[in-house]
TrEMBL record:
This is Chromosome partitioning ATPase, Mrp family, contains Fe-S cluster. SUPFAM superfamilies: P-loop containing nucleoside triphosphate hydrolases (SSF52540). Residues 60-72 have a biased composition (Polar residues). One of its GO terms (cellular component) is plasma membrane. The chain crosses the membrane at residues 30-49, 246-265. Keywords: ATP-binding, Cell membrane, Membrane, Nucleotide-binding, Transmembrane, Transmembrane helix. It holds the Pfam family Wzz.
């Protein structure tokens, strides 16, 4: 999991504006690219969706329960009941427009039985068709109802009939046909009701006046009840899909999700930082990418000189941040000894010690790198594979160790190998605890302002605990996602009184680009995976 910077970790879980900006910048690739990708995918998908055209017909209904003219003598409750009755009656009329009686007449009138759009079965109908077999004509009737929308215009007697299909003229024809069929069904009872009364000659005065108005103005008059207020015409513009809006909403929602994801990952990063400090009881300095060990000595030597070989890489930037913090902690003493140790082998302490020594050397500071891993001797093999003797040889022979110090002409770094290839008849534990060894390190302090000791792992070998007595500062490295935390914590407790010299912990074995700068997609996905795994684990410190 990525961490913020080499500065001391923040205690609070709030990001603030600087932290939020840093979180977004670090994951800028995901924040920028993901919305673009989803927008392109959405544009490609909506481009395949055919246009839909919506035609509308406006109908005036006749609920046949219109209240008398309102007056002060009409109670408010009676008026409310009348309005409620109107609403129920209009809803019945709207349901009638959707009924099979109307739809079947429209299908027959417009010959929609052979329409390819309306007769095309959906995927859902195919899936449900195995369970229930639809009645004849039911699928076509349902297809029309799916494309039909009927709504009341506010609190009036007006009803809007909307029909949406892939053809503008077809939408208008269906909408008008539904309206005409509805009116035909509504008017036929009115004409039938007038005939008996006229024949009987028993019309009242008001009925005779109403009948004469119908005869004069016809059934299309507002006085005749239901009528078409505005017939549907073929729409000029497609009602959907609204491609620009869909693409914009998709891109915007993806951008919002990417921003929230970046902030969440940063919060998890801060929580992880706090967990590191609580577990190890020391400040968390930074997380660095792993330098993979190779069978090729040249590749390993390149990893030990990453600050010089690839100064712009993430690992080199992490080394510079740690060195800057170490520089800020510089004491008043003329020389300082920095011990770099890890809990277990293969956690990257040797490469890290070499790189911080190279950094100080190229910064025009007299720096000595000492390979104190007398058993592994990895730095000795990587930096001086042909050396004939080293520190341990000189201690055994009681010879000056200055004679075996090597200097890199490119960086100015001085290097003291662990030992030569010849076996030494002196136990490592005895040599490292000898008075001669302590005097040798003390003598080197008078010559070099900065001495970096690359120590063996703390847990399996006791050599690093002895070296801690000679160090002024200790940088502790651990592969946080690989090394058991109990072992990492135990390694620090083995330092005992020298634990106060630990300036901070560096987490290794982190995916490249995950700790500093703009992270790669692989690092972001790895961070998400680690954050999800850490979230599912108990949060005990």
């Amino acid at each position: 999991m990525s961490q913020e910077t080499a500065l001391p970790a923040r205690r609070g879980m709030g990001l603030g504006f600087p932290g939020a900006r840093s979180a977004i910048v670090k994951r800028a690739k995901a924040v920028v690219v993901l919305p673009v990708i989803t927008a392109l995918l959405a544009a490609a998908i909506v481009a395949l969706i055919p246009d839909r055209y919506t035609a509308s017909t406006l109908i005036q209904t006749d609920p046949q329960q219109r209240p008398a003219s309102k007056s002060a003598n009409v109670p408010a409750r009676a008026d409310t009941l009348a309005s409620e009755a109107e609403r129920r009656e209009i809803e019945k009329q709207m349901d009638f427009m959707r009924s099979a009686q109307i739809i079947d007449r429209v299908i027959a009138e417009l010959q929609l039985s052979d329409d390819p759009e309306l007769n095309k079965r959906s995927l859902w109908s195919y899936l449900t068709g195995f369970l229930t077999r639809p009645a004849p004509g039911e699928a076509l009737r349902q297809a029309i109802n799916d494309r039909l929308s009927i709504s009341r215009v506010r609190s009036t007697f007006l009803v809007t009939v909307l029909v949406t299909t892939r053809n503008a003229e077809k939408s208008a024809r269906i909408a008008n046909a539904i309206a005409n069929q509805y009116l035909a069904q509504q008017r036929s009872p009115i004409a039938q009701d007038r005939t008996p009364a006229t024949k009987s000659g028993e019309l009242t005065a008001s009925e005779r006046m109403f009948a004469s108005l119908i005869d004069k103005y016809g059934l299309s008059s507002p006085l005749a009840g239901p009528r078409i207020v505005a017939a549907a015409g073929a729409p000029n513009r497609a009602a959907g899909p609204r491609r620009v809006r869909i693409v914009a909403i998709t891109a915007g929602s993806t951008l919002l999700m990417a921003l929230l994801l970046a902030l969440w990952l940063e919060r998890e990063s801060l929580r992880q930082t706090r967990k590191v400090e609580q577990t190890l009881a020391c400040p968390h300095m930074i997380s660095i990418p792993a330098v993979t060990a190779h069978s090729d000595p040249k590749a390993n030597a390149r990893g030990a000189r990453m600050i010089v070989a690839e100064p712009q890489c993430v690992y080199a930037e992490a080394v510079r941040k740690v060195c800057r913090e170490l520089g800020q902690r510089k004491s008043d003493e003329a020389s300082r000894v920095i011990l770099v140790a890890s809990a277990l082998p293969d956690e990257g302490s040797e490469s890290f010690a070499s790189n911080i020594a190279h950094y100080f050397a190229v910064s025009a500071q007299e720096t000595l790198l000492v390979d104190c891993d007398f058993r592994g001797k990895s730095l000795t093999r990587e930096l001086t594979p042909r050396n004939s003797s080293g520190l341990l040889d000189q201690i055994a022979a009681r010879a000056p160790i200055e004679d075996v110090i090597l200097r890199d002409n490119l960086t100015g770094l001085h290097f003291l190998p662990a030992s030569g290839p010849t076996p030494i008849p002196l136990a490592v534990a005895t040599a490292i605890r000898s008075l001669e060894f302590s005097r040798s390190i003390a003598g080197l302090k008078s010559r070099f302002p900065i001495i970096v000791l690359s120590a063996p792992p703390l847990v399996p070998i006791s050599d690093a605990r002895v070296l801690a007595e000679l160090a002024d500062e200790i940088v502790f490295l651990t592969a946080w996602h690989r090394t058991p935390r109990s072992l990492a914590k135990k390694a620090l407790t083995l330092l005992e009184a020298n634990q106060k010299k630990v300036v901070g912990a560096v987490l290794t074995d982190v995916a490249e680009d995950q700790s500093v700068g703009v992270m790669s997609f692989a690092a972001i996905f790895d961070e998400i995976r680690r954050a999800a795994r850490m979230t599912s684990m108990p949060r005990a410190a």
